[in-house]
Amino acid sequence: MKQKTATELVQEAKQQIENLTPLQVKKELEKDGTVLIDIRESEELKQNGKIPGSVHAPRGMIEFYADPSLPYHKPEFDKTKRIILQCASGGRSALASQTLKQMGYENVAHLDGGLNAWKDAGLFIERE
Ligand SMILES: O=S(=O)([O-])[S-]
Fold it and tell me: What is the CATH number of domain 17-120?
């Protein structure tokens, strides 16, 4: 099998998923039924804040949170809802979006550029 770099994996994932701008995400959050899931580590949330209304579910457990047949399942992982994943720069959320699609989540997207793009767009970040 051909070896791939992390950058190649992210680029490939981005071709197979829906990539949203910060403004598109903001608009979607104004609608009912959209769930924004922040998949960064707890430490990152403490240091850099979070997008208001996002729920936290670190990427490490995402397959287990997303599988309704497992005790780890989290209710925010709901295949009937619009799910938007977000990380710091959009790499992890691209890979995780691809994974969720493979698990049958059809209405999943991610915030391209992550929290950094959100910040650069001048949008509000909540601090603890
Ligand atoms: O995964 S990342 O783009 O936040 S480094």
Answer: 3.40.250.10
